[in-house]
Structure formats: C-alpha cells, structure tokens
Amino acid sequence: MQLPDPSELGLVGGVIAVIVGVLAAVFVYTISGNGTLWIGGAFLSAGLIFTGSLAIAKARSERLPEVAALPDEYLEIKLVEAALPFGVCVRCRQIDEPAAFHGRCPRCDAGADYVVVELDAERQLARSSLGITQ
C-alpha cells in the first residue's frame, strides 16, 4: 500500500488523514491488545498521521505568499505618515493598515516579529525594530 503524496491532499485531506490515523490507532489497540496486529496498525497510523501533518503544513505554507521587502526610505516615510494604530512586520518588512492586523502578520503569519504601534511614542520602536538607522 502506498500513501498518497502529501502535496495532493490539501488542508482538508491532511486533517482527514490525521483523524483517520488517530482513530485507526485507537481501533487497532482496542481489538488487538498486543501482538503483530498492533505493530502493523501502529505503522499504518503513524504513516497516516505523518502524511496528514505534511499535507497540513504544505497547504498552510501555500496560503502565505512571498512578499518583497520594502526599501528603508519608503518604510521611514510610511512610518511617519501611517495612521495609528498600525502593524509593522519585521520579518517581511511591511506596514499594515489599521484594519489589517490581529497581532500577527497577514502575509507571513509571524507573531513574535510583529510590532503593533498604537501611540506616537511607539513609532521609534517600530523604526528600530526594522533596523532603519538613517
């Protein structure tokens, strides 16, 4: 038996594979106790869970497009002109409009590398986080 290519499953298929893998492990464990059936069921379940996890990760990464980093000059102008509150992603070097952020970057899904600027005093923090030294 050959497991499907994770890239062909998609998000829903990945979730289904993980659920079936967990259910198969529980089912095989309850009917076999121990022995060869349990070993085979464990390998099958582990394969399904692994394949499903890969499919979920691949589907999630496909939803996040690559974004070109903005130059320092443009970022500095945008930092001064942006209406409060706004978000700054240090990882992909983008500045978001007020309605676009929820504590995470909408493009790269970074949480730790995302600075929410709510006060004028925090603009300098955002500038420093982006590494703008001019």
Features:
134 residues; mainly alpha; 2 domains; three-stranded antiparallel β-sheet; 53% helix; membrane
Describe the structure.
The protein has 134 residues and is mainly α. It has 2 domains: 6-62; 72-129, no CATH class. Helices cover 53% and strands 8% of the residues. It has helices spanning 6-32, 36-62, 72-81, 123-129, and strands spanning 86-89, 94-96, 114-117. It has a 3-stranded antiparallel β-sheet, covered by helices on one side. Helix 1 runs antiparallel to helix 2 (36-62). The N and C termini lie far apart (61 Å). The mean pLDDT is 77.
SSE topology:
Layout: H1 6-32, H2 36-62, H3 72-81, E1 86-89, E2 94-96, E3 114-117, H4 123-129
Antiparallel strand pairs: 1-2, 1-3
TL;DR?
By secondary structure, this protein is mainly alpha-helical. The protein is built from four helices and three strands; from the N terminus they run H-H-H-E-E-E-H. It has two domains: 6-62; 72-129, no CATH class.
Q: Count the helices. How many?
A: 4
The global form is elongated
Estimate the mean pLDDT confidence: 77
Low-confidence region ranges:
none
| Backbone CA Rg | 23 Å
What is the H/E string? HHHEEEH
Helix content: 40-55%
Supply the helix-strand structural class. Answer: mainly alpha
Can you summarize the main beta sheet? 3 strands, antiparallel
Side-by-side strand order of the widest sheet: 2-1-3
Strand percent estimate = 5-15%
Distance between the termini: 61 Å
